[in-house]
Amino acid sequence: MDKITLSKMQFYGYHGLFPEENRLGQRFNVDAELFLDLKNAGVSDDMNDSIHYGQVYEIIKEIVEGEASNLIEAVAERIANKLLGTFDLLTACTVRLTKPNPPIPGHYESVAVEIYREKTS
């Protein structure tokens, strides 16, 4: 299966369990892999045979910068569901959501979740 990859998109959101995360917010990084057949797009050179990267970015931005969630797992799930529901050509996607410098005891560069979802028939 072919794929389109959007890497290291950065957004500012208010997700987390701690009150300071919901009040102050923080940066989130998102990577998305979109699985679809790109043969027609490669032959036709027509945007209608692919998925517009800018639209994908705007959907992810709206979710990450929108309503706060306790868990980044929930944010990733909303992203995957919205992408699969929006783009007819999309058959599956992987969403990786990273929270740099999480406010939890210990020394971490980041924590992340990665989910893979497929379109159901």
UniProtKB/TrEMBL annotation:
UniProt-listed InterPro entries: Dihydroneopterin_aldolase, FolB_dom, GTP-CH-I_C/QueF
Q: Name one GO biological process term.
A: folic acid biosynthetic process
Which EC numbers characterise this protein's activity in its record? 4.1.2.25
- Which keywords annotate this record? Folate biosynthesis, Lyase
The EC class name is lyase
The record, for Pfam families, names: FolB
Query: What SMART domains does the database record attribute to this sequence?
Result: FolB (SM00905)
Residue stretches making up the Dihydroneopterin aldolase/epimerase domain: 4-117
Which Gene Ontology molecular function entries are recorded, alphabetically?
dihydroneopterin aldolase activity
| Biochemical pathway | Cofactor biosynthesis; tetrahydrofolate biosynthesis; 2-amino-4-hydroxy-6-hydroxymethyl-7,8-dihydropteridine diphosphate from 7,8-dihydroneopterin triphosphate: step 3/4
Entry annotated with the keyword Lyase: yes
Recorded hits in PANTHER family, A to Z, give: DIHYDRONEOPTERIN ALDOLASE 1-RELATED
Purpose:
Catalyzes the conversion of 7,8-dihydroneopterin to 6-hydroxymethyl-7,8-dihydropterin.
By sequence similarity, the record places it as follows: Belongs to the DHNA family.
Q: What's the protein here called?
A: 7,8-dihydroneopterin aldolase
